Amino acid sequence: MALLEIRGLEYCADARPIIRELSLDIQGGEVHALLGTNGTGKSTLAYLLMGCERYRPTAGRILFAGELINSLPIFERARRGIALAWQEPARFEGLSVRRYLDLHQRGFDPAPFLERVGMNPALYLDRHLDRTLSGGERKRIELASILALRPRLAILDEPDSGIDMLST
Questions:
Q1: Under 8 Å CB-to-CB from 26, ≥6 apart: which residues?
Q2: Is the CB of residue 155 less than 8 Å from the CB of residue 139?
Q3: Which residues lie across from 84 on neighbouring strands?
Q4: Sign (positive/negative) of CA torsion 158, 140, 51, 79?
Q5: How far is 64 from 104, CA to CA, in rounded Å?
Q6: How far is CA 83 from the centre of its chain?
Q7: What is the dihedral of CA 153, 157, 160, 162, to 10 degrees?
Q8: Per residue in 92-116, pLDDT tens?
Q9: CA 70 to CA 121: how far, in whole Å?
Q10: For the chain, the helix, strand and coil percentages under 3-state DSSP, each to the nearest 5
Q11: Are 9 and 23 in contact (CB under 8 A)?
Q12: Residue 166: pLDDT above 50?
C-alpha cells in the first residue's frame, strides 16, 4: 500500500479547472518533485493534500496510509503525519526560533536541525521569528521545523525560494 494515493483528483476554482484527473502513488521514503510554470497547480495540489481551508477536491480521492482524508481538516492531517512548508513562511511576533522549533516537543534540542539547514544555532535560537529575519532565514527555519517534526509526508512548496543557494 502506498503512503499517499491520489485517484482521479480534480479541483476547480471559480468554475475554472485547476487540476484534472490527477492520479499518483507515493511510497514511504520516496522523494518526488513537481515542476511546472506558474499557475499550473503545484501549490494548489499542496494545499489540497494538506487540507487547507477552501481547498477541497471537486472529484477524486486522497488516501493517506489507506485512509480517505478528503474531508479531514488540516489539524487532523497534521496529526496523521502530514506537514507542509509554505511557499512564504509565516512570521510570529514574540516567538523565539527555539520555541518555534520545539513547539511539538518540550525540552527538545533544536540546534541540530538549524545546523542541517546551514544556520548557526548560537546566532538564531534566541532571535524572534519576526520581520527582523530575511525571507531566506525564515525559509531555512521553516525547513528546520519540518525536519524536527519528522513527518510521514513532508510537502515543500518551493523549498528554495528566498534562499541564497551559494551560501549553503
A1: 2, 3, 4, 32, 153
A2: no
A3: 155
A4: positive
A5: 21
A6: 5
A7: -140
A8: 788 999 988 987 677 789 999 999 9
A9: 38
A10: 30, 25, 50
A11: yes
A12: no
